[in-house]
């Protein structure tokens, strides 16, 4: 298990619409400012991963989600990110406080966007690329 002192614990959301498109946000802050990534962020002290996912998704995308199973974990610099499948249960998609934009992306759109480093490789490894 990754300890808080070694890496900053974070969560990410793998969220798909009915058409198999993946939800991405354009990051407003570093690391990765201006690049497209999975929505998510830091797990605040006292939060579990599910609580952090619900909060981060509401803040960044305006969507209310139900966190599902863990898909995988990655280390990106000092960030230890646990990525979970999420199901949208409410809200309206909009770019929130930490996002410049938010959109559903199919495989063609994903190939055209400037993405954070290693995103496509990680999604490919986990077999969760959008259709």
**Class based on secondary structure composition and strand pairing:** alpha+beta
Query: Helix proportion of residues, in percent?
Result: 10-25%
Helix and strand sequence? EEEEHEEEHH
Low-confidence segments, ≥5 residues, pLDDT <50? none
Would you give an account of this structure?
The protein has helices spanning 49-61, 107-112, 119-125; strands spanning 8-15, 22-27, 36-37, 40-42, 63-76, 79-91, 99-105. With 131 residues, the protein is α+β, with helices and mostly antiparallel strands. Strands 4-1-6-5 form a four-stranded mixed beta sheet, with helices on one face. A hairpin with a 2-residue loop joins strand 5 and strand 6 (79-91). It is globular. The mean pLDDT is 93.
Secondary-structure blueprint of this entry?
Elements: E1 8-15, E2 22-27, E3 36-37, E4 40-42, H1 49-61, E5 63-76, E6 79-91, E7 99-105, H2 107-112, H3 119-125
Features of this protein?
131 residues, alpha+beta, 3-stranded antiparallel beta sheet, 7 strands
Write a concise synopsis of the structure shown.
A four-stranded mixed β-sheet has the order 4-1-6-5, covered by helices on one side. Strand 2 and strand 3 form a beta hairpin. It is α+β, with helices and mostly antiparallel strands and 131 residues long.
């Amino acid at each position: 298990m990754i300890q808080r002192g070694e890496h900053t614990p974070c969560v990410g959301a793998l969220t798909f619409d009915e058409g198999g498109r993946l939800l991405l946000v354009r990051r407003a802050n570093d690391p990765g400012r201006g690049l497209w990534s999975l929505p998510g962020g830091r797990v605040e002290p006292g939060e579990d991963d599910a609580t952090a996912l619900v909060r981060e998704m509401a803040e960044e995308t305006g969507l209310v989600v139900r966190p599902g199973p863990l898909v995988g974990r990655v280390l990106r610099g000092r960030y230890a990110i646990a990525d979970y499948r999420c199901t949208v249960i409410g809200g309206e998609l909009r770019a929130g406080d930490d996002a410049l934009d938010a959109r559903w992306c199919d495989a063609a759109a994903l190939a055209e966007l400037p993405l954070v480093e290693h995103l496509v490789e990680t999604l490919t490894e986990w077999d969760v690329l959008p259709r």
